[in-house]
Design a protein that fits this description.
- The protein is α/β, with parallel strands linked by helices and 310 residues long.
- The chain has helices at residues 17-30, 49-59, 74-84, 104-112, 130-146, 163-171, 179-185, 209-223, 226-254, 264-297; strands at 2-10, 34-42, 63-68, 89-92, 117-125, 155-162, 190-197, 304-308.
- The chain has an eight-stranded mixed beta sheet, sandwiched between helices.
Length: 310
């Protein structure tokens, strides 16, 4: 009998934890000839999320719980869940039920037909602001232009993945994993499963602007060195502009054009432009150096404080 593993990160989800468990369990019980397990990862929640998960695990042996010592982030929580799965197919989903668990049987059909990765592609996103929709669009457009690997647009972490793909992801040595990018990078046979993303059942989004920016940086700087090439291009452009200004200043002096403010304007324009280029360049280089520093420390991506049924 084949087995399905469901990986669900939880961060301050006391309002939806029980409803999430009920809906996921009802769907999994309705699928014949499949065993299953549900792995909840408590990502350092300080509310009653862990208490609820502990009760669920006590009453249902198929529920497994991993609890972090503090908040390590969504990608770290998913990574931890992937380390402990035992199923032949692994499904990653959020606890807020915006990605309906009722779609799991359809995704399994595509898996049975030979697809290794079935990723959810949102054809409609309910309950999300215009700002979030716009920034998501800009992010994926920018990421695909900079990256050497095409990452599907309008996708999140909701997907079904074959165990052999999970094993490849688990064996990657890097710490700051941008999972939705890595699932594209590893290849294998993939299918875009279109669906309508619903509003949250309860609670608030756990991805405010600050975390969205961090995720965007992880995606860009983990999957491309093109920003470094942009730095080189900016340097060349600034040198050319400086030479043009110098030549113009010499000609102006030689032919007595007298249409330059003595020194101040050209100097300030040049200094401001070059200063901006230098600061942007240092920031981009610093991002790469910072990531090298994080990797060389070899600290774990997360720390597990407690496990249940594992």
């Amino acid at each position: 009998m084949k087995k399905i593993s469901i990986v669900i990160p939880m961060y301050y989800e006391e309002q939806v934890a029980e409803e999430c468990y009920k809906r996921v369990t009802n769907v999994l019980k309705s699928i014949e000839n499949y065993d299953y397990e549900i792995i909840f990862i408590n990502d350092g929640s300080k509310d009653k999320t862990l208490d609820i998960l502990e009760k669920l695990a006590q009453n249902d042996g198929k529920v497994k719980v991993i609890s972090f010592s503090r908040n390590f982030g969504h990608q770290a929580a998913v990574t931890a869940g992937l380390k402990y799965v035992s199923g032949d197919a692994v499904i990653i989903m959020d606890a807020d039920l915006q990605d309906p668990p009722e779609l799991i049987p359809d995704m399994l059909k595509y898996w049975e037909n030979g697809y290794d990765v079935i990723y959810g592609k949102r054809k409609k996103r309910e309950g999300e602001s215009v700002f979030k929709l716009l920034t998501a669009k800009v992010f994926y457009e920018t990421l695909n232009k900079l990256s050497d690997v095409e990452i599907p647009k309008d996708t999140g972490d909701f997907r079904l993945v074959d165990k052999k793909v999970v094993d490849v992801i688990n064996n990657l040595p890097e710490h700051n994993k941008f999972l939705r990018g890595l699932f594209s990078w590893v290849g294998f046979k993939q299918y875009a499963y279109e669906y309508e993303r619903k509003e949250r059942v309860a609670g608030k989004t756990k991805y405010p602007l600050k975390k969205m920016i961090k995720l965007a940086k992880d995606g860009i700087f983990s999957f491309s060195t093109k920003p470094l090439k942009i730095v080189g291009g900016l340097g060349i452009i600034s040198v050319i502009i400086s030479i043009v200004i110098l030549v113009y200043a010499i000609l102006s002096y030689a032919y007595n054009w007298n249409n330059l403010t003595a020194g101040w304007t050209s100097m300030m324009c040049t200094m401001t432009f070059l200063g901006g280029v230098i600061l942007i360049s240092l920031w981009m280089i610093g991002e790469y150096i910072g990531r090298i520093y994080e990797e060389t420390k070899q600290r774990p991506q997360y720390i597990i404080e407690k496990t249940i049924n594992i």
